[in-house]
Amino acid sequence: MPYVGAIFWAQWRTFRNFYPRRGAAWTAIAGVIWYGIWCVAALALLRTFRDAESLPIIRQALPGGFLLMFLYWQVVPLILAATGASLDLKRLRSYPIPRQHLFGIEILLRVTSAVEMAILLAGVTVGAMLNPRLAKWTAFAALLYLPFNLIIAVGLRDLLARLLARRHIRELVFFILVLGAALPQVVLARKGMVSPQLRLLLAHDSWPGWPWNAAANLVLGAQTFPSLAILLSWILAAYVFSSWQFARTLHFDADAAAASDGSLRPSGGLEWFYRLPSALWRDPLGALVEKEVRFLTRSARFRLVFLMGFTFGLLIWLPMVFVPKGPLGNFFVQNYLNVVSVYSLMLMSEVCFWNVFGFDRAGAQFYFLAPVSFKRALVAKNLAAVFFIVVEISVVTAVCALLRMPLDFRRICEAYAVTAVLIGFLFTAGNQLSIHQARGINPAHSLRTSAAGRLQATLFVVYPVVFAPIALAYLARYAFGGQGVLYGMLFVDAVMAWIFYRISLDSAAQTAERGKEQMLAALSTGDGPISD
Fold first, then answer.
1. Which of 360, 383, 384, 382 is nearest to 370 (CA)?
2. Which of 50, 163, 256, 313 has a Cα at 20 to 30 A from 442?
3. 3 part of a folded domain
4. Which is more confidently placed, 15 or 523?
């Protein structure tokens, strides 16, 4: 494919010319640490798989391991509302590039959605090839499991992206996906962490027609030729499906689909809701908050992460409540509302904390031209985020009550207190990151691509620091055995968060005034031929 080099070269030039080069060393260090952890895990798998004495354990665990790997590759990006790097077909459609070449590049880019799984699969394969009781070529043939995951990921991503681009059915599609994700959670919750149904799916003697079972049999040297035929059939089916979906996406106009419902309709009965900020705060602060509320409610990406907070957030942590009695199970039973609330904050972090000017893009120049201080505009964005977070936590609380989870006044107060402290610390770091690492976001895209490498590296340090005061408060309650100790520590944390927030707010506003040209350029710049 002679176009591959040109596309990646154009992407490299985009990063080099438009994105800041500071912090490259820090990004590299954080990347080495993160992927180093997965490399250590892959090395542990390699040592296990090359040990001939571990063969009985491998035979039992490998099919379930490959199934979990498949689910991680296909489902986890959806849970995180992220899809990894992908071709920007709008920028490439006008060039005479064959569709199959673009499709091949898209398959290669699917590695970015789950690099960790590719590392683990490499460890499994190399370890199996070194095992004297396993055939070398069958272990190598298991690498067919990698292209299967890459190819099917292209089709699933394109199908989901097109569905989420249509305004009439976007939320309906999302709720169907939530119900689908709920099924394994219900299976887990019915009779403990490993129900008979789930055990049957994970067992080594389950239906051999599943692709993960076929790949496991190839590694183990069992039913080699039938397993190879089964896996090749799955790859062919995935290729036909994904190629069809990619062709449809290539000629799909997302803007037309999003605007297909005609002219804008009046908000009607919701007008009081949009006007509420102006009733609470005097202009211009009230008008700025109202503008944020109106815009965020119309943003497909924001609505998606908001819905995920009280749907996916509740479902993925539900099995932990049914862990057999012990420290882990008791913790999730007693703090389920806190865990889901914190998970909701992390889901909404991109649009509420780390990049609050992303949706404004080129329109952010208004904040520097209007006769209003930039500090007040930043406060307005923070207040709008607080409003939606409070609504989110309230909905989570209501759903927990409907599910008859352990819930009382103490737990509700504790959840709001923990959330309030975290919001203060997240705003402290987020206001700085929103200025120093501003980047444009398309509000019409429901799913995001992976965050910028420098931002990921920064969050690698920010999150432990932000959560440290909360962890210390719970440790104090555990050590001294009193709920009053927890509230006392949270009060101290809240005072610290308020002080840090005021300092960070002034610093961020001054930094934005000094570097407004660089900030506006970063917000208005495109990503190049590869969205990242």
1. 360
2. 313
3. no
4. 523
